[in-house]
Fold:
Amino acid sequence: MERLFYLSTLLLILISCPILASSQLQIPLEIAEENEQLENDINSFFRIMDRLNDELGFYSFIPYTGNVYLRPSLEQRLMEHFAVPIYSVASGKGPLNRRYEKGKNLVIVLFSGFDDPILAVLNDTELSSGSHFYSFLYVPQGNNKRFLTMEEMRKFFSWCFETSIDHVLLLFQSESEFETWTYYYLKNVTVTRVRKGRSLNSMVRNEGYRFSVQVANDLPSIFWYNSTEQADVIGGGNISLSGPIGLMMVEFMRYINATMDILPIGEKQNSNYDIFQADQNVDMVANLVINDSLPFSPVVSDTQICLLVPHRRKIPSSRYFDRVVSPSVHLLMLPVALLVFVIKYIAHRRRSLLDAFFSTLRFHLGIPLPEGQLERLPLADKIIEVYSLLFLMIFISVCGSILSSVLTAGLYYPPITDVESMRASGLRIITEDPTILQAFRDNRMPSSLADLVDLVDDHTVFKNLQNLNDSVVNVVRTPNWRGLRLYQERLKTKRLAIAGPKLCSDIRLLRLPISPRSPMRFIFKDYFDRIFESGLEQKWIRMGFQKFREVYGITKLPTDKNNEWKPLTISFYSIFITLFMAGMLLSTLVFIIELLYKRYRG
Structure:
């Protein structure tokens, strides 16, 4: 009987175990539906990420999953789906301030509500200072509603704006569809749904926004002048902008159907490019600056400080002979002439010094003696006349040929390409910018040339450039030279040119400062990228230089002179004519003196 009881108990246990096991392994219906909805959200999210990645081309993904757990994990799914690096961040570690790869990175955040601790982790200095795109996926847990109201979204995007999180997409599943929202700042935070065919540019166009732009003259890259030519952009004011940067700003305002208030300042741009906005209400400063800490300001150009040197500097015709014949040859001819003089004086007994002098002069001019006179010469004098005359004739012929060539084609100073040739040229360096002199002292430019730099006024520099003066060396910044070089476009041979890299500073990047509170930060960079690819910048450089000529009264451009290579005038031979006349006069005077001396003596 007891054995039967044990058997019946064991059978009951065996029958009940599968029932208990099945009841414990069964997943509640609510959890299953929640997991299924999460998978659907993730799939919809990945479809949007595919389109974003194709359009923007992200360098890496930075996922923040927080308390949302997936199987497989979000990091694993990203690695299987995209061939880009992944930075994984845990929610409990707080801001990491990790240095991420420079470029467009996609920050992916899964959060369950505004109290999710993962949002605090996003208060990261490195994230806010980089060029990142944010994608927030709202994943509610428990009894939280699956969608966000407009007030909640406005609260969320206000937090993004205060945290300097731009380029944001907020994604969640509403009652009917998967929705995508974003925001932009025009006077206040504006929340808008992302729809096909509707862009931020179209939203700004509809607003008719008015921007404020600060300007300092930096000729000819950017300058302002009194005119109503751009009344449709400046809102009826009497100040217009020109130069490539100024024209770009004007066309940008037309592109977004906006207007701007131009705020000119009295400061002048210098080689340090350190003009910054002082008023926080200014949307943009239309001057280039060197500042890599401006996150929303695109790199629009690069700059170098370079010496503007004479390209082909002619040597005056009066200096041709001493430039053609080396000074060492002059030094060599002096002892040779002295040796010939001594031989001719000693070899002829009872000969005056004057006779030896004229004989030496005739010898060096290459004038041969008649045969009868040659036979009567002493042996030492005869050897000099015979064997040295051949060398003298060749030397005189070579000098004559070289002199004829340079008189025909001209003679030029050696080009200035480095510090040694700059110092050998004997030219001074002029500039109106005190920071240029400091650049030489700080060795950003060759410090060994600092003693050659002279500070002058703006008018002197302008006149030297306008006259293409090749007796001084100017200092230019390459962005300005792109416009100024058009001044020489009608010359076949440019008279001024930028020296080689040894006389230039290092290349530095230039940005246009945009206020982090201005809506320009969302749309200007894309606009500039299109401008750069289209080549409009070259057109604006030419248009800006044309306006620069009109404003500053440059009516004509320099041209090549038709009579630049004119024949030698009689004045070139004036020194030889003077010597000839002096010799004739001296000869006549000596003849008269000898005649009178013999008459009265007799």
Q: What stands out?
A: Residues 130 and 246 are 28 Å apart (CA to CA).
